[in-house]
Amino acid sequence: MSNNTQARGFAIGAEESLACIFSLSGTTLTDHEISLFRASNPFGFILFKRNCDTPKQLKELVARLKNIVGRDCPVLIDQEGGRVQRLRPPQWRDYKPMQYFGDLYKDDPEKALEELRFESLRLAEELLDNGVNVNCAPVLDLFFDGAHDIIGDRAFSADPEIVGRLGLSVCRHFLNAGITPIIKHIPGHGRATGDSHLELPYVDAPYDDLSSLDFAPFREISKSEVGRSVWAMTAHIVYQHIDTKHPVSVSPDAITNIIRKDIGFEGILIGDDLDMKALDAYGDAATKAMESLNAGCDLALYCAGEADKMDALAENLPKISETTLNRLENANFSRESAA
User: Fold this and answer.
1) Structure confidence at residue 84 (pLDDT)
2) Could you give the count of Cα atoms lying within 13 Å of 75 in the half-sphere of its Cβ?
3) Is the Cβ–Cβ distance between 210 and 153 less than 8 Å?
4) How far apart are CA 96 and CA 100, in angstroms?
5) Which amino acids are annotated catalytic?
6) Which domains does the chain have, with CATH numbers?
């Protein structure tokens, strides 16, 4: 399955699914997880290193997840390259950090694009071979000197034009191969001086600076022919010139006025992990998930694999909305030269 067929295919049979991406605790499913997933029917799942032992085990696990919900559901993973790779040697390939391609692009754009094409396609091939169909990549955050190194060499560059160009190339190649990319962390995590896994970062840069620099790579992908087919993941960051009180993931103003209007993103929007410390002030996982969905995210994301929290999510969250189904069905990517 490739091109827009993959994104549209996620809508098939998903009308009664929960507006959430669930996780799991280990390399095999517990009896409780099987019962919970079957009864709650989450829209999809996300995998981490704790879930991936060998190619054989992973293929069987992914097939079991899809069988439980009875459809070719989204199965997500973070396989960026560099520091962030859930599948690692010796069982799987190693991939370069994205900064490598940004640095190469400055000296030889053609060579950088060709090497990135090769890297993107072999990464997509490996994911598909294991049954994974959604990758939480590419990172479109800019590199900023003095910022927290949680982004660091995960970013292509400090130059928004380079980030946009290389990020668009990755998205095209993934989609051509049959992988749905998730661009992150919209509208930009690069300036943050804190790690949102551990605290709530604040960014006080003027709106004009954010719009012309940080938002630019996300805008380029959103306005391109792949704009409706890619997904995006929010940043758990307070931008003080956008919403002084709430991080983007739970901010209706930021999602409506910045992500949907200024940036022009029309695809599936997923909040970053509910279990990150940046959202601690918003209550338990189910409360945070509802805040995120009510703010305008299409899906909530829960990554810690704790059964009691997923039980609460299953009891409290709604099914995916008609708007979300329409976004899936309106994915409009078509195969063309993916440079």
Assistant:
1) 97
2) 27
3) no
4) 7
5) 197, 272
6) 4-329 (3.20.20.300)
Coil, strand, or helix at residue 339?
Answer: coil
Residue 6 has a pLDDT of 64
Residue 221 CA to residue 235 CA, distance in Å, equals 17
Is the omega angle on the peptide bond into residue 197 within 30 degrees of 0, that is, cis?
no
Q: Which two tokens stand for residue 130?
A: 């294991």
Rounded distance between C-alpha atoms, residue 286 and residue 313, angstroms? 5
User: How far apart (Å, rounded) are the C-alpha atoms in residues 177 and 142?
Assistant: 26
At 282 the three-state DSSP class reads helix
Q: Which amino acid is at 198?
A: L
d(CA 50, CA 128): 19
What is the model's pLDDT at position 197?
87
Determine contact, residues 257/265, Cβ cutoff 8 Å.
Answer: no
Residues of the chain by 3-state class (helix, strand, coil), percent to 5: 45, 15, 45
Scanning the structure block, which residue is given the tokens 């049959």? 178
Q: Which residues of the chain, if any, have pLDDT below 70?
A: 1-8, 332-339
CA angle 325, 328, 332 (to 5 degrees): 145
Tell me the sheet residues that pair with 269: 232
Which pair of tokens denotes residue 2?
């490739």
Q: How far apart are CA 275 and CA 161, in angstroms?
A: 33
CA distance 209 to 94: 36
| pLDDT number for residue 250 | 95
Q: Are 291 and 282 in contact (CB under 8 A)?
A: yes
**Partners of 238 in the beta sheet?**
202
Q: CB of 254 within 8 A of CB of 242?
A: yes
Longest dimension (CA), the chain: 54
Beta-bridge mates of residue 139 = 184
Rounded CA-CA distance 226/332 in Å is 7
Provide the token pair at 54. 């060998």
**205/201 Cα distance (integer angstroms):** 13
Q: Which residues pair with 232 in a beta bridge?
A: 183, 269
